[in-house]
């Protein structure tokens, strides 16, 4: 099917048509502050973007606007939720991906892979991200540097096409009290039984991509996708956020599911260090 779509969408004409619409570059920015500890340290600003789908159905202008919005938020950490390329990971698409990531200035950039990444030449995507300073996590932990050393990011492999192993990742934890789990799909929640986390970030669902005022019309298959289609929710004691993503697949259309990015501000419980941002 992907070979047929590559042929059908030659020249990226769907993205060019979409980019002609006045609303084609609109990206929602969701903001939320969370108390993370009592250490009185400075806030940590975490930006999250997912499902870029660089390819024939996503206007490059939309992607650039999304990353310009991230840069305006001046994040300390950039988290990327997978599905970077739609169809083949050709050099031109990888170059766009790299330029987007490079446009954000921040000390820490972390990523996980999604199902579309693993359906194509995933090592080329990993190499492209690594070359622009991104650490790709596959069932791995990444403790944030000082002054946010109480925070750790746990990156899980994709539950659909990878080997999601939350237990193996959790075994690498070293006492950090605030834990962010990053996974492409909300189906990663099914692997977290008995594991404590503060925030779980995912994408994959596109919020249905084509939705109605009462909710998504079609969602990806998966035990958690219908329960967590988009937005904030709770899973046990942890906060879940599922992004609608930025790009599209198969059809260059969104309805009642606009592109989004997330900005989390992790505050010490006394609110210290929040001034000046």
Question: Would you kindly provide a written description of the structure presented here, covering whatever features stand out?
Answer:
The chain is an alpha/beta fold. The protein has a single domain, classed as Metallo-dependent phosphatases (Purple Acid Phosphatase, chain A, domain 2, 4-Layer Sandwich), CATH 3.60.21.10. 21% of the residues lie in helices and 24% in strands. It has seven helices and 14 strands. The chain has helices at 2-8, 13-19, 60-72, 91-102, 115-119, 122-131, 166-170, and strands spanning 28-37, 44-49, 77-80, 108-111, 135-136, 140-143, 151-155, 178-182, 199-202, 211-212, 215-216, 231-235, 238-242, 260-268. The chain has a six-stranded mixed sheet, covered by helices on one side. Strands 6-7-8-9-13-12 form a six-stranded mixed sheet. The radius of gyration is 18 Å and the shape is globular. It starts with a helix and ends in a 9-residue tail after the last strand.
Topology:
Elements: H1 2-8, H2 13-19, E1 28-37, E2 44-49, H3 60-72, E3 77-80, H4 91-102, E4 108-111, H5 115-119, H6 122-131, E5 135-136, E6 140-143, E7 151-155, H7 166-170, E8 178-182, E9 199-202, E10 211-212, E11 215-216, E12 231-235, E13 238-242, E14 260-268
Parallel strand pairs: 1-14, 2-3, 3-4, 4-5, 7-8, 8-9, 9-13
Antiparallel strand pairs: 2-14, 6-7, 10-11, 12-13
Helix pairs in contact: 4-6
């Amino acid at each position: 099917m992907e070979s047929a779509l590559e042929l059908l969408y030659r020249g990226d004409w769907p993205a060019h048509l979409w980019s002609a619409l006045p609303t084609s570059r609109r990206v929602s920015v969701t903001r939320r502050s969370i108390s993370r500890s009592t250490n009185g340290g400075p806030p940590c600003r975490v930006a999250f973007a997912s499902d870029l789908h660089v390819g024939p159905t996503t206007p490059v202008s939309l992607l650039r606007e999304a990353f310009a919005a991230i840069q305006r938020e001046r994040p300390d950490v950039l988290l990327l939720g997978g599905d970077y390329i739609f169809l083949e990971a050709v050099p031109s698409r990888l170059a766009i991906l790299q330029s987007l990531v490079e446009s954000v200035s921040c000390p820490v950039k972390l990523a996980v892979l999604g199902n579309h990444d693993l359906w194509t030449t995933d090592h080329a995507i990993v190499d492209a991200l690594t070359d622009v300073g991104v650490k790709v996590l596959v069932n791995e932990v990444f403790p944030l540097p000082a002054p946010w050393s109480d925070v750790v990011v746990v990156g899980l492999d994709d539950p659909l096409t990878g080997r999601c192993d939350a237990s193996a990742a959790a075994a690498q934890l070293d006492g950090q009290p605030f834990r962010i789990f990053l996974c492409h799909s909300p189906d990663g929640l099914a692997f977290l039984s008995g594991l404590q986390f503060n925030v779980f970030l995912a994408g994959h669902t596109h919020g249905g991509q084509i939705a109605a005022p009462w909710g998504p019309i079609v969602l990806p298959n998966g035990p958690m996708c219908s329960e967590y289609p988009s937005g904030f929710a709770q899973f046990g004691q942890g906060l879940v956020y599922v992004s609608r993503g930025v790009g599209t697949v198969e059809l260059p259309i969104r309805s009642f599911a606009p592109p989004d990015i997330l900005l989390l501000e992790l505050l010490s419980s006394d609110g210290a260090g929040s001034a000046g941002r």
